[in-house]
Amino acid sequence: MISEIRIGYGCDVHRFAEGRELILCGVKLPHEKGLLGHSDADVAVHALIDALLGALALGDIGYFFPDTDPRYRGADSMELLRKTLAHEAFSSWNISNVDLTLITQKPRLAPHITAMRESLARALSLTTERISVKAKTNEGMGFVGRMEGMEARAVVLLTAEK
Ligand code: MG
């Protein structure tokens, strides 16, 4: 019987840059630009990590993996996700579902949605039907519309039998 639930929300933005790979949900996507960041700049996974941390009021990604720490230079964000879930606070909680929205003008993400869901499902040990990855444009407006960067928003639900 589920006796407790927690919801978590996370968001992140990263700037597009030349000479970088575009990695979303741990999946390398073909695009002429990638996202700039201290780590691999996987904006989707960063939003998800913040949602997970937020659900248990543990802080945020910048606190756990500071961008001033050379250990996280070029870090694989999927590894940061695994490290997050290894925090003892998560041991008594199950992830019920994840709902992630990626907002970018380009590239078109629809052909990669399945691969991204499968990648997150593997990392979270969940079935893909519990992982939603949605993609949308910003209708040409703002920094996303000008293709300066992209944005991700994530919601997670945690449940526990306590
Ligand atoms: Mg980030």
What distance separates the N and C termini? 9 Å
Mean pLDDT comes to 96
What is the count of DSSP helices, taking H or I runs of 4+ residues? 5
Largest sheet: 5 strands, mixed
Helix fraction?
Answer: 25-40%
The helix/strand series, from N terminus to C terminus, equals: EEEEHHHEHEHE
Poorly predicted residue ranges? none
Task: Tell me the strand order in the biggest sheet.
Answer: 4-1-7-5-6
**Alpha carbon gyration radius:** 15 Å
Q: Name the overall outline.
A: globular
Count of extended strands: 7
Listed once per kind, the bound small molecules are: magnesium ion
What amount of the residues lies in strands?
Answer: 25-35%
| Secondary-structure class | alpha+beta
